[in-house]
Amino acid sequence: MVSDNELGLFLRLHREAVTPAEVGLPAGPRRRAPGLRRSEVAALADVSVEYVTRLEQGRDRRPSPQVLAALASALRLNWHERAHLHHLTKAADPSYNCRGRIPPSGEVRPTVRALLDRLEPAPAVLLNRLSDVLAHTAGYVRLVGPIGLLDATTANLARFILTDARARNAYPDWDHLADEQVAALKQGPFRAYPPMAALADELTITAGDAFTRRVDTVPSLPKASGLFRLAHPEAGLLRLAYETLELPADDDQRLIVYLPADAATSDALDRLNSQHPQPLRLVAG
User: Fold this and answer.
1) Which alpha helices (DSSP H) does the chain contain, by range?
2) What's 59's DSSP letter?
3) If you ran DSSP here, which 8-state letter would residue 251 be given?
4) Quick one: which of 213, 138, 228 has its CA closest to 174?
C-alpha cells in the first residue's frame, strides 16, 4: 500500500535535515541522529510534541496557516519549500485534483518550439506532467540518443530512468536521478489524477521497489537545478548541469536545459556537435 502522507513525509525529512547547530541548539552526547528531535521542533514552533507527532504520522493534515508558518521557520524552509508546504495541506485530501480527467497536452506552442531552436546546440527537452518527451533540440538527440532514451515510440524520461537497464549504466548518479523523477511525478495531485495514477500503476509493476520505495520516502519537491554525470558512448563521461523552467499553468509542461559543468565536458560536447552537425527535426507535438 503506497503511503499518501506527503505532508508528514515532508515535515519529517526536513526535521531530520536540520542540525541543532543551525537553530542554536547543542548537539549533546546522546543524540542518535544528526537532525532535530520532535521536541525541539515543537519548542521552536511553540506547539506541542504530540501535535508534531500527529502531523508527521498523518493523523492531522489540516494545520492552521499560523502553525505552518511557525513550522516553516523552525525547519528553516526557503520560500519555495514554504509554498510547497502550504500546497501539501490542500493536497492532503485524497480526492484533491485540480486537473480533472483532462489528459496532459501534447501540443507545443510555436513560441516554445522557436525557443528550442534558439537553444541549439545545447541539449534541451520539453516534458509534460507525465514526463513524456514532447519536443527537444538536436543537441538533446546527440546527448541521449546513443543511450536509448528516445528509442520508444513515446519517449518518457521517468519510464526510461526507472525501468530501462541501460539507464543504470548510463547514469553513474542513477539513484539521485531516480529520486528526482519520482519527486517530479508526485508533484500535484499524483494518484488523484487518473493519467498519473495509470502511470504509477504501470511503474509499480515494471519498476517495482525502485519506484514504490521512493514514493514512500522521496518528498514531492524535485530540485529545479543540479548536477549529474552521464557515461556517453561517444563522448565519454560528462558532467552536466541542468536547469528546469516551468511553463505557464495552461501548458503544464517543463523545459529542461543541460549545460556543461566543466571545461572537459564543454570540449566533449563541442566535439560531439562537430561530428554530428546535421540539424535533426524536433519531435512532433
Assistant:
1) 6-17, 38-45, 49-57, 65-74, 79-91, 110-119, 138-144, 157-163, 165-170, 174-186, 194-206, 209-217, 263-275
2) S
3) T
4) 228
Q: What is the pTM of this model?
A: 0.77
Tell me the C-alpha distance between 88 and 5, whole Å: 9
Distance between CA atoms of 1 and 13, rounded to whole angstroms?
20
Q: What angle do CA 164, 6, 103 make, to 5 degrees?
A: 60
CA 258 to CA 167: how far, in whole Å?
Answer: 17
What is the band of 1 on the pLDDT scale with cuts at 50, 70, 90?
very low
- Are 219 and 13 in contact by the 8 Å Cβ rule? The answer is yes
Short-list 203, 220, 132, 216, CA closest to 162 = 203
Give the model confidence (pLDDT) of 114-149 as tens digits. 999 999 999 999 999 999 999 999 999 999 999 999
**Mean of the per-residue pLDDT values for the chain?**
88
**Residue among 148, 133, 151, 129 at smallest CA distance from 200:** 129
Q: Is 156 left (phi over 0), alpha (psi -120 to 50) or beta?
A: beta
Q: How far apart are alpha carbons 150 and 156 in whole angstroms?
A: 8
Q: Distance between CA atoms of 159 and 211, rounded to whole angstroms? A: 10
- Spatial separation of the C-alpha atoms in residues 224 and 256, rounded to whole Å: 9
